[in-house]
Amino acid sequence: MATLFEKIINGEMDADIVHQDSQVTAFRDIDPKAPTHILVVPNKAIATVNDIADDDELVIGHMVTVARDLARKEGIADDGFRLLMNCNEHAGQEVFHLHMHLLGGRPLGPMLAG
Ligand code: 5GP
């Protein structure tokens, strides 16, 4: 079964896509937790951080450089931002297609709620 994010990557489901190339897709989160809240995802289906293979290092690195460039484009690079990946139940992962949250545009507070 394709995840929501696979459908967005393949153009089968609407999303506000801000970047797409042969390796990654980035789109705005449907329920933003900050003025900038973008999800950067590999085009390849990888369910969780636990499922990243050694061979995936290039695409994982590319997710970070895309996030860096998007932070600059959004005008949040200098003030600062947060990159976050949730893995499995204790982190509250909801969508089982690897994704990196790019959050910024206001002070983000402590890293963890409590
Ligand atoms: P997780 O909790 O798995 O780290 O984050 C999943 C994120 O996906 C959440 O922030 C949620 O708001 C976002 N999300 C869930 N469904 C959709 C959707 O259909 N479209 C978009 N753009 N974001 C979604």
* Strand-pairing-aware structural class: alpha+beta
CATH class: Alpha Beta
Spatial strand sequence of the major β-sheet: 1-2-3-5-4
Radius of gyration: 14 Å
Spell out which ligands are present.
guanosine-5'-monophosphate
Q: What would the average pLDDT be, to the nearest integer?
A: 97
Q: What is the oligomeric state here?
A: single chain
CATH superfamily: HIT-like
First-residue to last-residue Cα separation = 35 Å
What is the count of DSSP helices, taking H or I runs of 4+ residues?
3
Strand-residue fraction?
Answer: 15-25%
Tell me the helix content. Answer: 10-25%
Task: Output the helix-strand order.
Answer: HEEEHEHE
Overall 3D shape: globular
Largest sheet: 5 strands, antiparallel
The CATH architecture can be given as: 2-Layer Sandwich
Report the uncertain regions: none
- What is the number of beta strands? 5
How would you sum up this structure, described in words?
The protein is 25% helix and 22% strand. It has 114 residues and is an alpha+beta fold. It has one domain: 2-Layer Sandwich (HIT family, subunit A), CATH 3.30.428. Strands 1-2-3-5-4 form a 5-stranded antiparallel beta sheet, with helices on one face. It binds guanosine-5'-monophosphate. Residues 4, 15, 27, 29-31, 86, 92-95 line the site of guanosine-5'-monophosphate.
